[in-house]
Automatic annotation (TrEMBL):
Low complexity composition bias: residue spans: 317-335
Record flagged with keyword GTP-binding: no
Protein topology in the membrane: Peripheral membrane protein
Pfam families: ABC_tran (PF00005)
Protein's name according to its UniProt entry: ABC-2 type transport system ATP-binding protein
Organism in which the protein naturally occurs: Actinopolyspora mzabensis
């Protein structure tokens, strides 16, 4: 690991019985940057984080964090990181302020500094008014924010955030994005696993896509989008009964199989000549008697790249965009770049 590299993993392998959770994972994050890990549920993201935070030992391979080997220097690694897992680790019998004060003291901070840092983080995570209330009465989103604050108490050089905004409302998510950006501006390295593709697009300098325990693509957000290529012709039909016919029209215009979302009556297909394809689509749909509610062109998104790489689109649920289970073989890898979506 070079002096400019804060997180490094080489050929990580981890099995649980017959399940090969990690199958030779390679990761690298430069100091003061955000490395985003994307992948379907069960792809191996959390297993990789648990190894990097010394909570699991790999079967083979090596990893270093902040210049310390996770196998031979676990205590040094733990002193160098802040961790927020998928589930909030909050003592419900303490107040929010007491939770953060306790973390500060465990990190070796003196009493005045621990109290001061607790107050700063409570204000930063919009928990100031609730800081002296018992955490048992906090909502799920408030507990999540308190857990995130706990990961930042000691201002660690490396912060591991495993799906940090799951369960947060839009305001909470935006506040978390702002705080992550501020951390990075101050030189902190962040490893971010997320199922919100717009989150990775906005925050990550580089993105590694993991599927079936392997890194199948690695690069900036723009590089991953470039793997998809071309523009996308998208339309919404008025009647669900017309979707099959509309799909046939788009199949004759586009370069691949149209994506069809029956719930929203939305269809999308990749095209080579965007403006020409748009005109042809409008004409053919009109001749077929299909009423179109909306039609347009857009450049590939990270969602398109995720679909292309894993073979599965993200699925929108009540909690936001989440990646479903998927499989993929023989996929290209983008060259890793230094900057990504965060400007």
């Amino acid at each position: 690991m070079t002096s400019a590299t804060a997180i490094s993993a080489e050929s990580l392998v981890k099995t649980f019985g017959a399940n090969r959770a990690l199958d030779g994972v390679e990761l690298s994050a430069r100091k003061g940057r955000v490395l985003g890990l994307l992948g379907p549920n069960g792809a191996g993201k959390t297993t990789a984080v648990r190894i990097l935070t010394t909570l699991l030992r790999p079967d083979s391979g090596s990893a270093s964090v902040a210049g310390h080997d996770v196998l031979t220097e676990p205590n040094a690694v733990r002193r160098s990181i802040g961790l927020s897992g998928q589930y909030a680790a909050v003592d419900e019998n303490l107040t929010g302020r007491e939770n953060l004060y306790m973390v500060g003291r465990l990190y070796g901070m003196n009493r005045p500094d621990a109290r001061k840092r607790a107050g700063e983080l409570l204000d930063g995570f919009q928990l100031g008014e609730a800081g002296d209330r018992i955490a048992k009465g906090y909502s799920g989103g408030m507990r999540r924010r308190l857990d995130l604050a706990g990961a930042l108490v000691a201002r660690p050089p490396v912060v591991m955030l495993d799906e940090p905004t799951t369960g947060l409302d839009p305001r909470g998510r935006m506040d978390t994005w702002r705080l992550i950006a501020e951390l990075v501006d101050d030189g902190t390295t962040v490893l971010l696993t997320t199922q919100y593709l717009e989150e990775a697009d906005a925050l990550a300098d580089t993105i590694a896509v993991i599927d079936h325990g392997r890194v199948i693509a690695n690069g900036t957000s723009n590089e991953l989008k470039a793997l998809v290529g071309g523009e996308r012709l998208e339309l919404v039909v008025d009647e669900a009964a017309e979707m099959d016919t509309a799909a046939e029209v788009l199949a004759g215009i586009g370069t691949g199989t149209p994506r069809v979302d029956t719930q929203s009556r939305r269809l999308q297909v990749a095209v080579n000549d965007g403006s020409k394809s748009l005109v042809e689509a409008v004409r053919w749909l009109g001749e077929s008697g299909i009423e179109v509610h909306d039609v347009g062109l857009h450049r590939p998104t990270l969602d398109d790249a995720f679909l292309s790489l894993t073979g599965k689109p993200t699925e929108v649920s009540g909690n936001g965009a989440t990646a479903g289970a998927a499989g993929s073989e023989g996929l290209a890898t983008a060259e890793s770049g230094e900057r990504g979506g965060r400007q």
